[in-house]
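Hey,
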Amino acid sequence: MILGLTGGYCTGKSTAAAVLQDEGWTIVDVDALGHRALELSAIAVADILGPQVLGPDGRPDRRAIGAIVFADPRLLERYEAVVHPAMNALVADAVAGAGDRVCVDAALLYRLPVVGDCDAIIEIRTSLVVRLFRAWFRDGLGPLPALARIARQRQLWAAGNRFDGVRYVVWNRGDRGGLERRLHNVIKSIFSARGLN
């Protein structure tokens, strides 16, 4: 079974992934594979964005890249046209080798080809207040930068609302125990619907 896991900035998706891993799911971390794809595409990315996006060691400077591409939608599109095919290939390979219970953990899940392979998707949500607190506590971001990050993901959730596959929304109320119970119930429902134990 291939399970998709997604959620917006500071909703607790990483905690949900850790819970599922503890329950025996193999996690395919698309963010980590995206970093690997960027490393593999460093020269092509520098050709698009300029040599300043590479550090002294020749490795991509993700912070510098983010500052450039998020300020210019055309550059973001060109950047993604280089990095995303490499990332999608890495994801496909990871899923193929992951066994019979694999969870694809991706904030961008609804935009990726692997979404079509998912038997079900779990979308993690939480309140805006909790997200703002987490952004401050975890990333040191004030309310305005955090709201800007949240707003940039709005199109993803519009895509989620158009998704015609099996999707479960799980609310993260900030306590891991409660999140574990809600995830367990959703997994049980997914298995039951498919006639599995």
